[in-house]
Backbone:
């Protein structure tokens, strides 16, 4: 697949997803359901999932233009499911549609990014506290294993997927609008986390690991107060650290 360039025509390839990362970035699929009473709706959600994965993993960077005709040809479908898929992605904050001009991958300003993270600081600590009653020892063990794999020092793409899976596992039992909001906030800031990871891992990975270990201990102890405080601190640190790199938002 040839490289992408913002504002230039892009040919997308939707073959097999990246090994080891696509499974981890998927959730329960309620934002992109696979079944419907209408075949066009099924196709549109399939296309939406394909494009979303490319955006979240960085194959489609912010500002990239998406052409409906090219997508329809490559995916062997009509323009209708492609059009509907782009509308789904627009409603989830991943794509900007401009009348009679086309579609672009969303490009957040620093202010928009900062607001998204501030919302996460409020919402996710609430979700983790509410999840504690449903988190089992087996769940904690699975989270410990994810952290072990993180500390092995994988490549950036695998690290980001493992980190996302770890955090989403702590929100066990939450469905519907709140989790859709969290998913949307993670998806729309995926590019910034990816860029920040490249910049920060050499110096801050020890800190991130320590915060994860503190969070795991709070989960193990079923300590809602500590879990909320640690998670809020963890998200806030990323927000403030990223603000020191304005080049990421250019």
Residues:
């Amino acid at each position: 697949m040839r490289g992408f360039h913002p504002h230039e025509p892009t040919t997308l390839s939707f073959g097999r997803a990246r090994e080891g990362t696509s499974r981890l970035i998927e959730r329960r699929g309620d934002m992109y359901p696979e079944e419907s009473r209408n075949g066009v709706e099924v196709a549109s959600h399939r296309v939406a999932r394909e494009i979303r994965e490319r955006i979240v993993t960085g194959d489609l960077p912010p500002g990239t233009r998406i052409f409906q005709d090219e997508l329809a040809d490559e995916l062997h479908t009509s323009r209708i499911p492609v059009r509907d898929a782009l509308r789904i992605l627009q409603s989830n904050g991943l794509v900007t549609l401009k009348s009679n001009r086309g579609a672009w991958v969303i490009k957040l300003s620093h202010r928009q990014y900062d607001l998204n993270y501030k919302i996460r600081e409020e919402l996710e600590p609430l979700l983790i506290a509410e999840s504690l009653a449903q988190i089992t020892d087996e769940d904690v063990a699975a989270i410990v294993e994810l952290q072990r794999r993180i500390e092995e020092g994988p490549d950036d793409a695998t690290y980001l997927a493992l980190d996302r899976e770890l955090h989403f596992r702590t929100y066990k039992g939450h469905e519907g609008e709140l989790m859709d909001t969290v998913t949307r906030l993670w998806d729309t800031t995926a590019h910034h986390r990816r860029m920040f990871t490249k910049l920060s891992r050499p110096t801050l990975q020890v800190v991130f690991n320590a915060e994860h270990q503190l969070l795991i201990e709070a989960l193990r102890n079923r300590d809602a107060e500590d879990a909320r405080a640690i998670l809020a601190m963890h998200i806030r640190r990323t927000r403030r650290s990223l603000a020191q790199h304005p080049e990421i938002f250019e």
User: Anything to note?
Assistant: The chain has ten helices and three strands.
